[in-house]
Design a protein that fits this description.
Length: 246
């Protein structure tokens, strides 16, 4: 048992090192490798009032954090759902740790999505004042609901004192979190006026496409490292509680 735990810690630490390196490479490429403008008129979004498109210029560089963070949030939804199903089937504590850890990390990366998206929107279609780009469109609103759902899972399970009931609540809530990100993804098709529907023009430059791919992989590895570390930490905390109550 101790040998398996040691191997898990080693895997988590290796993932953390790789994820940290990937994030550093992403930051370097996004600032020093990608161009300011691909070709005239391609880096733009439409203003919410239907006015003329606005060039993004330097502001689009936040995209290399914003989009991978959204992918990471989607992965956390998948992990909570997977952990919830396995927890109901096996009742093993490690799957409860997975659900909780994925929700905790999802809470962090979801906040990063909201923060970077808001900062980007403030420049792209807002007035430049903090918060001016938030307009309660379906994509933004559903993302906020998803973030609140992650927070609710963490809070609600702590409010349940009976262990068996807490495990059941964690499993069911984790499963229910799974479909929320597909809802966020589809929300862009509903009455969307400002958030870009796709980034096909943005991806036309090979430097941007390459940086986007590296950013996605780097942030995903960093996400896996955070989840793995939190699982190990939660398992360690559970073992300590068991020893104290023995």
């Amino acid at each position: 048992m101790k040998a398996d735990s040691s191997k898990a810690w080693v895997v988590a630490i290796v993932l953390a090192i790789l994820g940290f390196a990937g994030v550093q490479v992403t930051l370097y490429l996004s600032y020093f490798y990608t161009p300011t403008q691909v070709t005239p008129g391609t880096l733009w979004v439409v203003t919410p009032d239907g006015g003329a498109p606005i060039s993004l210029y330097e502001s689009y560089r936040i995209f290399f954090i914003h989009l991978p963070s959204a992918y990471a949030t989607a992965s956390c939804c998948a992990l909570t759902a997977l952990g919830g199903v396995l927890l109901l089937l096996t009742r093993k504590p490690v799957w409860e740790s997975l659900v909780v850890s994925a929700a905790e990390v999802g809470l962090c990366v979801g906040a990063l999505v909201l923060l970077t998206g808001t900062l980007w929107a403030d420049y792209a279609w807002g007035s430049g004042r903090l918060g001016s780009g938030w307009n309660w469109e379906p994509r933004l609103t559903t993302m906020l609901i998803l973030w609140l759902a992650f927070a609710a899972l963490v809070v609600v399970r702590r409010a349940v004192e009976i262990q068996q009931l807490r495990t059941q609540v964690t499993a069911v809530y984790g499963i229910l979190l799974g479909p929320l990100y597909p809802l966020v993804s589809k929300a862009i098709e509903i009455n969307q006026t400002s958030h870009p529907r796709n980034f096909s023009d943005l991806m036309s430059a090979p430097e941007i496409a390459l940086t986007k791919q590296i950013a996605s992989v780097g942030v995903l590895v960093a996400l896996l490292a955070l989840v793995a570390l939190r699982v190990q930490w939660n398992e360690l905390a559970r073992q300590i509680r068991m020893e104290r109550s023995a």
